[in-house]
TrEMBL record:
Pfam families, sorted: CYTH (PF01928)
PANTHER family for the chain: SLR0698 PROTEIN
The protein's name in its UniProt record: CYTH domain-containing protein
Active site: Y30
Domain CYTH as annotated: residue spans: 2-153
Organism: Pseudolysobacter antarcticus
Length: 167
């Protein structure tokens, strides 16, 4: 079984930008667990970057550790799936920031989620120590509204002021 251990944080300020080693554009859509399917045990998404595409199945378990399975698929197939099988897209630029042997993936969302910037960090264990740069804000790993599938259902542009402040 494939297990993903990932912590998710809000990003504070702009200092992280100078540390970015690579940027890629990402578009993703969901084939299951979209609006109205709250009882599903998993989400199934198609993701396309600048040069590659994947089919991803992830458990909807709340928290830092979740089952995840990811398979490369032809880009042309993925583009057709995004255009014909998905209702809406989550669009973002992923900035890779390397720090002390760790890679932070800083997602700067666009479209209906413009203004939201979240850093993700994959770990080998839930209790593994990791660097905490000044730009790493509050941890939101246990808040479902920050899951990409939920950003499609309830985009950042529609959040109330208190949601945006993390209350």
């Amino acid at each position: 079984m494939a297990m993903e251990i990932e912590r998710k944080f809000l990003v504070v300020g702009e200092a992280w930008r100078a540390q970015t080693s690579r940027i890629e554009r990402i578009e993703q859509g969901y084939l299951s667990n979209v609006a109205g399917l709250t009882s599903a045990n998993s989400s199934v998404r198609v993701r396309v970057t600048d040069e590659q595409a994947w089919l991803n199945v992830k458990s909807v378990t709340l928290g830092v550790s979740r089952q995840e399975y990811e398979y490369p698929i032809p880009v042309d197939d993925a583009l057709v799936m995004l255009a014909t099988l998905c209702e809406g897209l989550v669009e973002k630029q992923r900035h890779y920031v390397e720090l002390d042997g760790f890679i932070f993936e800083v997602d700067e969302f666009s479209g209906a989620n413009t203004g939201l910037i979240v850093a993700e960090l994959e770990l080998d264990a839930e209790d593994q120590p990791y660097p905490k740069p000044a730009w790493l804000g509050r941890e939101v790993s246990n808040l479902p509204r920050y899951y990409n599938v939920n950003l499609l259902r309830h985009p950042y542009a529609h959040w109330s002021a208190s949601e945006k402040l993390g209350e």
